[in-house]
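Issue 218. Parser rejects a valid record. Input:
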Amino acid sequence: MYKDILVHIPTERPMHAVIDGAIALAAKLNAHVDAVAVGYIASSTAYVLDGGAAVAAVFEMERERAVERAEAALAIFQSEARNAGISCTCHPLGAIPADAAGSLGEMARLHDLSVVLQPDPAQGSFDNDMPGEILFQAGGPVLFLPYTFRGPFRANRIGICWDGSRLAARAMRDAAPLLARAEEIVIITINEADAVRDEVSASHLARHLGRRGLSTRTVSLSAARADIQPTILSLAADEGLDLLVMGGYGHSRLQERFLGGVTRAMLEAMTVPTLMSH
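Output the parser choked on:
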C-alpha cells in the first residue's frame, strides 16, 4: 500500500496538474505526502565558492532567493492539501540542478511512490530534468502525470504494458496497490509472438494476477518499433484507460541521461497518467 508519497512541485512550470493528482491520490489512499520544490541556482554561480568571502556571500544570497522560490511554490500545494485534509510536509530546496537531482533521488528511495509532472519539451526548464532523474534514482515506482492533466486522479481502468522484461515485471509489482483497487485491468502486448518468450507471456501474467484475485483481459497488437508508443496511447484512448503501467527504460549519469525509445516517446507525448519503474 502507498502510505508515504513524495511529490515534486515545479517552480518554473505550471504546477496544478501534479498538485491536483497527488492530492486526489493521497486522499483516496489516506497517505502522507512529502512535497519538495527546488529553486534552482545557476551552475555558474556555484563556481564562485572558491572566490573568497565576498563571492561566497553572493552565492548564499542566490541560494536564499532560490529557497524563497521553492517556498512560494510549496505554499500553493500546502493550501490545497489543507483544504483536502491531507497530511503533508513541505521541503523547499535551493540547489544547482545536479545537486537537486541527487537530493530528489535520495528522498524518493524512502517513499512508497513518487508523483511527478511529465516533462514539457516546449518549455526550457530544469524542472523538465527532475522527473527522469527521480525515475532512474528512486528504486521504486514513479507516477507521471501529463502536463495537460485535469481533474482528480483515478485508476479504475488500468492498462499493463507487458513485454516480459524485468522492468515490466517490476512496474507490475510496484503497481499492486492500484491494481488491487481497479475495476478493470487490460494487459497490453505489442508484437508478442516475436518479442516475448512463452515463460513470460501475457497468458502467464494473466494467470499470475488471477491468483491474486484480479480479473484481466489481454489485447495483443502489432506495430513497427517507431509506432509502439502511439499504438499504446491509441488503445488507451479507445479503452478509456485511467492509468498505464510500464517499465522505464534507460539509465542516468546525472549530466547524461539515456532513455529507451518507447520511454522517451511516452514522456514526450503522454496523454494518460503513467506509472513507471526502473
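Fixed in the parser; the record now loads. The first strand starts at residue 4 and ends at 9.
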